[in-house]
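Exercise (ungraded).
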Amino acid sequence: MKFIIDQQVEDIELPENLKLNTFLQEFHSDCPHPECSFGFYGYAFGQSPFHVPRLVQKALVDNAHKGQYAAVPGVEELREAISEYNKYYFHMDVDPDRIYVGPGTKELIYNLLEILHGTVILPTPAWLGYLPQIRFLKKNYHMLPAGVDKKINPQDLEKLALRLHDRQKILIFNNPNNPTGLVYSKKELEVIVEVCREQNIIVIADEIYAQTTYEFENFVSMGKIYPEGTFVTNGLSKSHAAGGYRLGYVIFPQHSVDVRRQFKKIVATEYTAVTTPIQHAAVAGFQISKEMDEYFQITRKIHEIMGEYVYEKLHEISGVTSTKPQATFYLLADFNRFTPEFNASKIPTSQKFSETLIQHPYHTAIVGGDSLVLERTDFSARLAFVDYDGKKAYDAFRDDFPKSHSDKLEFVKTNAPKVVSGLKMIETYFDHLLQNAESKIDCDFSSLSVVN
Ligand SMILES: Cc1ncc(COP(=O)(O)O)c(C=O)c1O
């Protein structure tokens, strides 16, 4: 039987995260070296390494018998818990009516893009999830490249908006940011919002990393500064290490009854509601409790320690710079200083760079610039610092938390050996590159410390 696939689907490129997955698997099965059974130093996948909080797991088990469909916007108890959560952690007063629950924020962002009219403004570098959605929906879009500080420049935003003639524009604003790990200050938000108000720009504020902000009091939600024009999205995936639960929520702007009505139609048409037991599990994750608070504090502290380590070690490689993460488990490294050597070694693009780094003998997976919606020749890359046993690190931290700088170094060496070895591998890669090596130098593998 030959099935005919709709042309619109045929035309979609494989989303970057799937591409990366496929590439890693293919590389793996093709690699003839016995050392390839080791796998790789994983700086590519953006998944929290921690365990799902125990009380969330327990609530899931306790509610496993609930087989009925939930109400389209989400179960009442959960929307109330999310409202409390936003009041307690983000100082926002949100009526539960303004909250819709969905199967992950990725889907919710897609649903919002489905109903909202207007050209999309996509600041870059960006998370690799947005662009395929925008393209699939055939929406007009414009990139907004970051300034030297790797953040949105409000003047650039204004200039771009002035060129667009839509009555309404949609800014996708990801704060804290994937891939840079940076956090916008209240002042910075206010200046951006001034432009949004003047230029009729509404905001989809993807705040999925809000709870990971290292100095937590520094995080300010866009929903607080621009409540009449912001759709805030957040969920369980990063803060509760539960991406696989597929639960996110959107807070609609003030005075958005009609938008919600339209949104409800889309949700009811596409997925009816989120899995009922998962919603009940999420209640435990969003309700204010000592256990959850401790979980957030410890996990964000460990992310900070790992981030500091990766930042420091990268800067020890001559010529490499990076953002200094203030949240998330990412930083954006800049390897452009090596452009001449890349070119001499027939590595013309960041895609090729990430391919050569995954190959034997380096075995190191990163996300290259072109998967971050940067120019193909921009040798920037995202490094995620999550390749360690999160539960072990969590317990070790709780037993005896590292205080001094040397305690923290020791903590990383003991609890995240692959993060340590992978950085050495990146250094080795650049040593070889500088020696005018070809991308596939077959160096002595015995110098490699393989950690399983
Ligand atoms: C910036 C950003 N937004 C959204 C998501 C998706 O989150 P969810 O699991 O809620 O769909 C991710 C996941 O990596 C992300 O990095």
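Further reading is listed at the end of the chapter. For now, observe: The radius of gyration is 22 Å. Residues 46, 104-106, 127, 129, 174, 178, 206, 208, 235, 237, 243, 248 surround pyridoxal-5'-phosphate (CB under 6 Å).
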